[in-house]
Amino acid sequence: MNMDWLKLETIKEFLYKTTEVLSLVVAVSLLVGIVFGPETAFFGSVVANFSSILSVMGQEGLLALISILIIAAILKK
Known about the structure:
Elements: H1 8-36, H2 43-57, H3 62-76
Helix pairs in contact: 1-2, 2-3
């Protein structure tokens, strides 16, 4: 019985690749939403949600932006 999928390294690699793909989708969604405006289907709502998250998390989103940069630096390793 092959149980390679249960190995921690396999699970970590899968989660890392999934996170990488999802972060690219979010980045492209933000870029398209910024370029074409908030009225763009799907992409505009991503920009609106991202803006609301930034405004909630700190004064003018500065704290949230720093947090996102730290998370991005960790994921880049």
